[in-house]
Design goal:
Blueprint lengths: L1 E2 L3 E2 L14 H10 L6 E4 L5 E5 L3 E6 L5 E6 L4 E4 L3 E2 L4 E2 L19 H5 L7 H8 L4 H11 L9 H15 L6 E3 L2 E3 L8 E4 L3 H52 L1 H10 L10
Antiparallel strand pairs: 1-2, 3-4, 4-5, 5-6, 6-7, 8-9, 10-11, 10-12
Amino acid sequence: MVEIGKRFNLTDYSLKAPEKASAISMLFRKHLENKRLESIEQHEFDRVVVLDFSDYKIVLEFFSHGNMVLIDSKNKIILTFRKEEWKDRKLAKEETYRFPKGGLNPHRLSLSEFKKIFTEKDAVRSLAKSLSFGGDYAEEICALAKVDKNKEPSDREKEALYTAMKRVLDSKTEPVMQDDRLFPFPLSKFEVQKSYKSMSNAVDEFYLTKKEESRKLKKLRKRLEEQTKAVAKFEKEAEENRLKADAIYKHYLRIEQLLEKRKGKFAIDLD
């Protein structure tokens, strides 16, 4: 299951195929039918996944709004889901595919290299900025190292942070829901709301729930729209009735006299 820019996982749910295949699907079929998927790898420490079919590759980019690119063995682009261009790379047919310029890869970082990343005044921002860790993971590293996240670490604290970072990177996958978000393993600062048997299962259930919520939200929005129109109608009627009541009160004595003289229905001109 691939939702461009959102998720990539094995799914337990069957999806109804459209009656007519899209042009993109036909192009993928043309190049990949009967091809064997050799490997699935993350590129460096970036939000980029490469599906290798030997002669062809599918590159899934999960940063910004995401993209999906089909390239050949020479890295020439055959298809891109959306055309994009930056100062150092261009995603378009016939262009050579270049990976986005990434940061440091913490998996291959030595202790001496790690000590040089602390360019900010506080530890947590240096970890998040230099190593592309999300804020929650940077805070987890500081918590495990017992280092004040809001201060610049000492040389000894940097060693503790390095050990904690390695511990986080080597964490066993135990997918959980915490703070209404998915994490590959429990973070110490949040309560565990739910545990899952695999990351794919967690992502599957998370997005299924989101879709159900989306349907419910759509119904609620429609109901709110109808109620808003009804309120506007009632407010208009209330204003009209208020003006009528004011006019009746203004001419109360005259109306009362007419009611005494005449019985039944009649018209009164109130100006």
